[in-house]
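Propose amino acids for all 355 sites.
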C-alpha cells in the first residue's frame, strides 16, 4: 500500500471515529440534561412566525428572528428541521424553506450550543405524490432491494446523504443530529404507514436507510423512532430493535377533546416510559401541540402536568406559520402561560443547556 492510500485510509478511519464520538457525545449530553428536566423544542423556529417571514424575501432573510425568543427572551433548546423535497433535488423543502437556509440555521443553532433534530417527509417514489399520498400498498416493497423503484430510491438516499455530509461545524467536524425518519408509522397517513406496508417491510425500509447512511460513515446520527399517539402493543411489531434505535419518541397532538388527549398521552407515555427503562433508552415527545392554542392556559394547565410525570428528555411543538401555529409568539395570550411554564427549573431553554 503506497503512502497516499495509507493516508486516505487513516483519514477515513479518523473521520468515522470522530463521527461515532460525536453521536455518543450527544447521547451522553441528552442523558445528562434529562436528569435536570426536559428541553423545549420548536419546528422551523428561525424561518417564520405568526407575523413575519424570513424566507419570503431573500433580500431580507431576517436571520436570528424567532417567535420563541421574542416571546420569552431565549431560543428553544432544540430546533427541528425537515428535509422533504431534498430527495428529488428541489431547492426548497415541502414548507418552502430553501435548503441553503436550513443548513445555515441548523449550523447556527448547533454553534450557539443548541441541539438539532431532522425529520424527513420524502415524496411517494412510486407515484410522485407527497408523503401523504397513501393509496398504494406496494410503495415500500417497490423501493426495497429487488423492487422496481429501488434504483430510484438509491438516488434519493444519495441526495439525502450529500446534504447531511455538508452539516459540519467550524472545525469541519460533523454536527451530531437526532435523525427521525419514517415517523408516525402506526398511523395510515404516510406511504410508509401501518396500512401501507407490513411490519417486515417497514423494518426492511428502516434498515435499508440506516445501513446506507452508516456505510457512508454517518455515525453522527442519533436514530429516533417515533410512532403516533394511540399506541397499541402490536405497533411495536414494527420497532426496528434496540440495536437500531437510540431514542424512543412519541408524536402527540391534541386534535380531539382535552379529556381524550390527556388520557391517551398518559397511557402512551406510561407505556413508552416503562419500555425505555427496561431497554435502557432515552425517550421524548418528538412532536406535540394544540393547533392555534385556543386555550392559552394549555401550556401550564394541560401539557406540563402530564409530561412532568415522565422522564422525557425533550418535547417539541410544531411550527409557527401564519395559518397555523403551535408555539408561543409575542403578543399572544398563550405566551404568558408559556413563560410561566419555562420559569420552572425543569423546563430547559437554550441558555440552560448551552456550554
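Proposal:
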Amino acid at each position: 500500500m503506497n503512502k497516499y492510500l495509507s493516508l486516505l485510509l487513516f483519514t477515513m478511519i479518523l473521520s468515522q471515529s470522530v463521527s461515532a464520538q460525536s453521536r455518543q457525545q450527544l447521547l451522553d449530553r441528552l442523558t445528562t440534561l434529562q436528569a435536570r428536566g426536559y428541553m423545549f423544542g420548536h419546528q422551523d423556529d428561525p424561518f417564520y412566525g405568526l407575523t413575519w417571514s424570513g424566507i419570503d424575501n431573500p433580500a431580507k432573510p431576517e436571520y436570528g428572528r424567532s417567535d420563541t425568543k421574542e416571546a420569552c427572551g431565549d431560543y428553544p433548546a432544540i430546533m427541528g428541521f425537515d428535509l422533504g423535497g431534498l430527495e428529488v433535488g428541489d431547492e426548497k423543502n415541502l414548507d418552502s424553506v430553501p435548503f441553503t437556509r436550513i443548513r445555515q440555521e441548523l449550523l447556527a443553532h448547533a454553534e450557539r450550543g443548541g441541539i438539532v433534530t431532522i425529520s424527513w417527509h420524502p415524496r411517494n417514489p412510486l407515484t410522485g405524490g407527497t408523503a401523504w399520498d397513501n393509496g398504494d400498498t406496494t410503495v415500500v416493497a417497490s423501493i426495497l432491494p429487488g423492487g422496481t423503484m429501488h434504483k430510484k430510491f438509491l438516488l434519493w438516499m444519495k441526495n439525502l446523504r450529500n446534504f447531511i455530509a455538508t452539516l459540519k461545524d467550524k472545525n469541519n467536524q460533523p454536527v451530531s443530529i437526532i435523525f427521525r425518519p419514517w415517523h408516525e408509522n402506526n398511523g395510515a397517513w404516510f406511504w410508509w404507514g401501518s396500512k401501507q406496508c407490513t411490519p417486515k417491510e417497514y423494518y426492511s425500509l428502516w434498515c435499508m436507510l440506516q445501513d446506507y447512511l452508516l456505510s457512508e460513515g454517518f455515525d453522527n446520527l442519533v436514530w429516533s423512532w417515533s410512532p403516533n399517539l394511540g399506541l397499541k402493543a402490536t405497533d411495536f411489531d414494527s420497532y426496528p430493535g434496540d440495536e437500531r434505535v437510540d431514542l424512543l419518541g412519541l408524536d402527540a397532538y391534541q386534535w380531539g377533546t382535552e379529556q381524550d388527549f390527556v388520557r391517551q398521552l398518559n397511557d402512551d407515555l406510561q407505556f413508552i416510559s416503562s419500555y425505555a427503562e427496561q431497554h435502557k433508552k432515552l425517550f421524548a415527545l418528538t412532536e406535540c401541540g394544540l393547533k392555534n392554542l385556543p386555550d392559552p392556559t394549555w401550556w401550564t394547565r394541560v401539557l406540563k402536568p402530564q409530561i412532568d410525570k415522565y422522564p422525557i428528555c425533550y418535547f417539541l411543538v410544531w411550527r409557527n406559520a401564519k395559518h397555523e401555529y403551535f408555539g408561543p409568539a409575542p403578543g399572544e395570550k398563550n405566551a404568558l402561560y408559556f413563560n410561566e411554564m419555562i420559569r420552572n427549573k425543569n423546563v430547559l431553554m437554550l441558555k440552560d443547556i448551552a456550554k
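The two ends are 43 Å apart (CA to CA). Confidence is low (pLDDT under 50) at residues 1-18.
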